[in-house]
Design brief:
Rossmann fold
């Protein structure tokens, strides 16, 4: 039996910095691996999730020069939890600024969950800048996907967790939960914002893995993390990511020539397999891996194995 691949050893960045991107936003970034090696950019999920030290370990440290960054309003980027000038297209522009900062013509784009949406949006806008795509837990911000997770669908699989998600919202407002949460996440009362943020964030954290995993779910309850995560995520989803419904699937033709790997868990509740299947059908040239015993998180053993194998292969290892 082939042994599953796991994360590379812990590594510290060799450079960090803040990049002013306009509109009052500063983006915190770090570079890891070997300066001048194969360039790559890591796009985290959420939106609003931020990067973690474990994300650095998805790439062979001698083979890659990886740039990781906290998207607008989250992680160590400032201002924290800001919704101003914070859209998909602002982020696409930020990625280009970071590429120019790095001084490379092309780079590999790696994104999971919301990061897969952003990777597709960036690649379809700047296809000439992308050497390969590594996509995990496919999400394209269609209304059907948002409805499944925030109105009816995943609620049927996790009824006890769904009750906790509903708790801050009065019964008369539950017909549009994203709008009801928007009202509370932008409320002038900090206590109201924090209660809503924690409930929104924990719903996601507790439904990401096939089996319960406190190491994955517990950080979602941290108030500082939850406030940025919930506010930014809800902001994007109320606005459908500033995308036409189905746009990222429709525009695959623009990136069909780019080598790509798609990794999807069969039991992904946050981003159901039907979206990855639709992307696979639209883009049969991409390398598609459906992991039968996995949920959504990149840390699921079968998903992690395929991600590491993909980054290794694109580096010629």
């Amino acid at each position: 039996m082939t042994q599953l691949r796991t994360l590379y050893p812990e590594i510290e960045p060799y450079a960090t910095g803040m990049l002013e991107v306009g509109d009052g936003h500063s983006i915190r970034y770090e570079r890891c691996g070997t300066p001048g090696a194969k360039p790559a950019v890591f796009l985290h999920g959420g939106p609003g999730g931020g990067i973690s030290p474990k994300h650095r370990r998805l790439f062979h440290p001698q083979a890659y020069d990886v740039l990781l960054f906290d998207q607008r309003g989250c992680g160590q980027s400032t201002p924290h939890a800001s919704l101003e000038a914070n859209t998909t297209w602002h982020l696409v522009g930020d990625i280009e600024r970071l590429r120019m900062l790095m001084g490379v013509d092309q780079w590999q784009v790696f994104g999971g969950s919301w990061g897969s949406s952003l990777a597709l949006a960036y690649a379809q806008t700047h296809p000439e800048r992308v050497s390969e795509l590594v996509l995990r837990g496919i999400f394209t911000v269609r209304e059907s996907e948002l409805h499944w997770y925030y109105q009816f669908g995943a609620s049927e699989v996790y009824p006890e967790k769904w009750e906790e998600f509903l708790a801050p919202i009065p019964p008369e407002e539950r017909g549009d939960l994203r709008a009801a949460y928007r009202k509370r996440l932008t409320h002038e009362d900090e206590a109201v914002r924090l209660e809503a943020a924690r409930a929104w964030s924990l719903w996601e954290g507790r439904t990401l893995t096939l089996l319960p995993d406190p190491e994955t779910s517990d950080p979602f309850g941290d108030p500082h993390f939850a406030l940025a995560f919930a506010r930014i995520e809800n902001h994007y989803f109320v606005h459908h990511g500033w995308l036409e419904d189905g746009q990222l699937l429709r525009d695959v033709e623009k990136i069909r020539h780019i080598p790509a790997t798609i990794v999807q868990g069969r039991w992904d509740m946050a981003c159901p397999v039907r979206t990855a299947h639709a992307l696979h059908r639209a883009w049969p040239e991409a390398d598609y891996h459906l992991i039968e015993d996995a949920g959504h998180a990149y840390s699921e053993p079968g998903i992690l194995d395929r991600l590491i194998r993909a980054t290794d292969a694109y580096a010629g290892l």
